[in-house]
Amino acid sequence: MEHPTSAKRSSIGIDDILKVIADPQRRHILSYLSSDSETHCSVAKLVDHLQSQTTGADQSQRHLRQRLHHVHLPKLQDVGLITYDAETQKMQYIENQQLESLLSHVESLTETATTESTPHDK
Q: Stretch 68-76: mean pLDDT, rounded?
């Protein structure tokens, strides 16, 4: 049986996707969820992943959980990229090829910008 929100897949506009991925943390969340082979992901697992990817200023688990619960996950659900159950603390990524293509391009641009801004020995 198809999930009710899967119908939103085709109705997500490019502007909505661009607004969502403008935030680096949401890009990390979506990259992780779109590459995870499991159907559902717990908030705890996502927090662990995000903390392992953090460089520089670390966020406490509590603060990160709160930001996910109150900001990022509801926004991703509103746009139709995930389903999120606050009671069970589980989410599910809703496949979106347009998003995945944009994420790939943004990651390439980010890597290129990082490489170009790093001084090289000549």
A: 97
